[in-house]
Amino acid sequence: MKINNSSIKKSIKFLKKNECIGMPTETVYGLAANAYSNTATIKIYKLKKRPKFNPLIVHYFDLKMLKKDCYINNIFIKLFKKFCPGPITFILKLKKTSSVSRIVTNNKNSLAVRFPKHPVARTLLKKINFPLAAPSANISTSISPVTKSDVKDEFGSKLKYILDGGRSIIGLESTIIDLTNRPKIVRLGGLKLEKINKVLNLKLKFINKSFIKVPGQSKLHYSPGIPIRLNVIKPKTNSAYLLINKRNSKNLNFFYLSKKKNLTEAGKNLYKTLREIKKKKYKLIEVEKIPNIGIGQTINDRLKRASYK
Ligand code: TXA
Ligand code: MG
Known about the structure:
Blueprint: H1 5-16, E1 21-23, E2 30-34, H2 38-48, E3 57-59, H3 63-69, H4 74-83, E4 88-93, H5 102-105, E5 110-114, H6 119-126, E6 132-133, H7 148-155, E7 175-178, E8 184-187, H8 193-200, H9 210-213, E9 228-229, E10 240-243, E11 254-256, H10 263-279, E12 285-287, H11 295-307
Parallel strand pairs: 3-5, 4-7, 9-12, 10-11, 10-12
Antiparallel strand pairs: 1-2, 2-6, 3-6, 4-5, 7-8
Helix pairs in contact: 10-11
This protein binds threonylcarbamoyladenylate and magnesium ion.
Threonylcarbamoyladenylate binds near residues 91, 110, 112, 135 and 214.
């Protein structure tokens, strides 16, 4: 992707003035601000209508800057070497000397950190001397945005600038692993659990109970605001039907996440399709059964939360 230097410069100007901007990443778009500034990070909570107790992920360019703020360990290094930059977030112990705003951490002694792979995000991060706090760029509990226009739909003119980076290629949030204690997966995401387990030679599973420890992982999340029924074989006539296998019917209510049962492709299309269905004002979403492996696990997790009544 070609980097537009003038838009990078404009972004830096806003960030240095303690403003928030929309930022592309390979997972989803983020609502970014200077992680070292209280003034800047308070604005994130306000814009997103996010409860103050829900801490933010901080985005770094490289290890050098991260080490100023967090302690790292061997497991972190293994995963960093294999997957970074990429769709994985680490919860690490925060250093007392860290400059990260207490607004970002909600006074916790841990910090969620990530190294985005998107070339536009990396170009931006390389040119500034502070990391960027950036939750997904949507109003709390709504669907995460995967394009600049999705971000615009969420905030309208309240957000002063959105840096364009095309469509997010993963389309689902990062996988989160807590390394403050024994490694624990606290959110399924765009990096397959199986890959993490292979590198660590472990059998980590995602346990739903961790929703309680991570406040943002509330059940009603990623919600298009329409009831969702899962594992549907025969859809009702007026519902939007999500599929991952091609069918020999030209039903206008069919929405393909994939036509070849490709779960990575389905993950990329999930949020985009949910937004489209919402715009078309369907009253019910039904979903074909999605295998609970690889990215399928993440898709099922998001659909389950969105369908929670
Ligand atoms: O892919 C992503 O991770 C995207 C892009 C923009 O980087 N960001 C993202 O941020 O999904 P957000 O805020 O929507 O989700 C971050 C989750 C929240 O559920 C939050 O509660 C949790 O991470 N979190 C943040 N700091 C934490 C901490 N110190 N301990 C435990 N959970 C934490
Ligand atoms: Mg989010």
